[in-house]
Amino acid sequence: MDVTVIAESSGDRLHPVTAQLVGAAVTIGGTPTVLCAGGFGAEDAASISGVAKVISVVGDCFGSFDGGAWAEALNSVSGGDVIIAAATPAGREIAATMAAMRGIPIIQDATGLAPGISVTRPIYSGKAIETSTVNAPCAITVRANAFDAAGEGGSAEISTVNQSADVAVAVREAIAKASERLDVAEADIIISGGRGMGDPANFSHLEEVADIIGAAVGASRAAVDTWDEIPHGMQVGQTGKTVTPSLYIAVGIRGAIQHLAGMRTGKYIVAINKDPDAPIFGVADYGIVATWEDALPALKAELGNL
Amino acid sequence: MTIAVLLKQVPDTTAKISVSGGRVDESAVSKWSMSPYDEYALESALQLKESGGGDIVAITCGPVRAAKMLTDAAAVGADSLLHVLVEDLNALDSTQIQAILAAAASHCGAQVVFCGKQAADTNAGSTGPGVAHLMGASCVTMVSEVASEGGSFMALRASSGGDQRVAVSAPCVFAFDKGTTELRRPNVRGIMMAKKKVAETLEASDLGVDTSTSSVSVDSHSPPPEKPPGQKFEGADSVAVVVSKLRDEANVI
């Protein structure tokens, strides 16, 4: 079965989640061809183990993001029974548009795949799990960190195709990010603060810890809605980002059902809260009943000693 | 200008989801609400109408209970309502739902479509881009603001590299992320007027969409896996213990 993997790019480089997409393709018994939009990351894609072929799709339309144009250009050079992309905003849009172009179904945000094709995915932001069956041809997006990445050491052939499409979404102004901090959706370690932090200025303590361990800083909805200084991009939960990091540290977060839905699939969860009855302790692997004022300096010191 | 706003009724985000007999038990859902991202789309459509004129048609595809959500949309200012009756949305695949909604928007004469970036139940995000393709429209996702500018639109969207202002012309679809303003509350007059507003009701077949066979079959729903009970420690002195466990037991730092 030919599987078209839509490489995820980060700027003009290959995003590491692409190796997980290849891993997902192999899981369903597929032979992966990786499409690199704009040619971004083609050489790195070719070195992923198990990749049969890399197609570097080069065209003017890849200068800025227009999901419809990217999908049109990619679709015209891709065969494949199954399309696999990352369940990122761009990946979801490109895959959904390609599926609509082909008149085939799409299932988004898979966390498990088996030949057949059996697809497991969280629904209701993780409050339930759905298993469904779909036959090729179909499109599937997969959640970051849900599949093991294929290794390195591949040496697939790269072919370059010139293919563009009309761009209908014109970027007029790029607004620089307020901070260069890691995005919670991409981070392997996240430390999040809630309203229990008392004041948005206190998030600087979370940032100090984050800097030591290379973590992203997140926030609960309560914190985002209460303080203008905490942007929605940091929000973890049902109306924010759903995350699956290796380590999630919740500080001053009670654990509303919407927040738990967004982070409960994290591999290890640490909760720091002064209220021993806070619901967050129900999903924590390691709970610490303490105020953040006491716990964060200790955490900083201990992590600094590693 | 007619703006179609696509709305979905979903279990409220505060509602517990219970599974019985391998299916999510919808009868146990305590409260149904407009999907949160759709609320942002509706509020933005109302603001666009206020600044530039136009008519707003609120469209939903779903069972009979979703009619209440359309009335809620009318109460805050939707001019007309279209309900495509589908008893079980789970029985349809993405191609069918997109075909229904694209046909419904065209049926209303809309060249501009507002919707949420994803619904709070399926969390998919396929509808906006799919409907856009079927309508021959451009699509902008992760949008938090739209303003009209000359004959076209200026949208603020989030991207991995930071926010961007993008220009796009009709026909176009905007899929909304969380914005800066919550959906307004209805006033008494709005609520009274909404009670008199009758939704146009159609079947999928009226729009020429065949819903008889889905290419995706849902095998089962299950509750999320229970985590084994964690370890709980008292006081900040235990931070050292937890850090050593993260290093030695969990191997995550």
Largest two-chain interface: A-B, 90 and 82 residues
Strand order of the largest sheet of chain B: 11-10-9-12-8-1-6-7-13
Q: Can you summarize the main beta sheet of chain B?
A: 9 strands, mixed
> What is the first-to-last residue Cα distance of chain B?
56 Å
Order of helices and strands of chain A: EEEHEHEHEHEEEEEEEEHEHEHEEH
Q: What's the helical proportion of residues of chain A?
A: 25-40%
> Could you say which overall geometry of chain B the principal axes of the C-alpha atoms support?
globular
CATH superfamily of chain B: HUPs
Q: How many β strands of chain A by DSSP?
A: 18
Summarize the structure.
With 306 residues, chain A is an alpha/beta fold. Chain A has helices spanning 17-27, 42-46, 67-77, 89-102, 203-213, 221-226, 257-263, 292-304; strands at 2-6, 9-10, 13-14, 31-37, 53-58, 82-86, 106-110, 112-114, 118-123, 128-134, 138-142, 157-162, 170-175, 189-193, 216-219, 247-251, 268-273, 286-289.
What is the secondary structure topology, with strand pairs?
The complex is a heterodimer of chains A (306) and B (253).
Chain A: E1 2-6, E2 9-10, E3 13-14, H1 17-27, E4 31-37, H2 42-46, E5 53-58, H3 67-77, E6 82-86, H4 89-102, E7 106-110, E8 112-114, E9 118-123, E10 128-134, E11 138-142, E12 157-162, E13 170-175, E14 189-193, H5 203-213, E15 216-219, H6 221-226, E16 247-251, H7 257-263, E17 268-273, E18 286-289, H8 292-304
Parallel strand pairs in A: 1-4, 1-6, 4-5, 5-12, 6-11, 7-11, 14-15, 14-16, 16-17, 17-18
Antiparallel strand pairs in A: 2-3, 8-9, 9-10
Helix pairs in contact in A: 3-4, 5-8
Chain B: E1 2-7, E2 9-11, E3 19-20, E4 23-24, E5 32-34, H1 36-52, E6 55-62, H2 67-76, E7 80-85, H3 94-107, E8 112-116, H4 127-135, E9 138-149, E10 152-159, E11 162-168, E12 172-176, H5 188-196, E13 200-203, E14 216-222, E15 231-234, H6 239-248
Parallel strand pairs in B: 1-6, 1-8, 6-7, 7-13, 8-12, 9-12
Antiparallel strand pairs in B: 2-5, 3-4, 9-10, 10-11
Helix pairs in contact in B: 2-5, 3-4
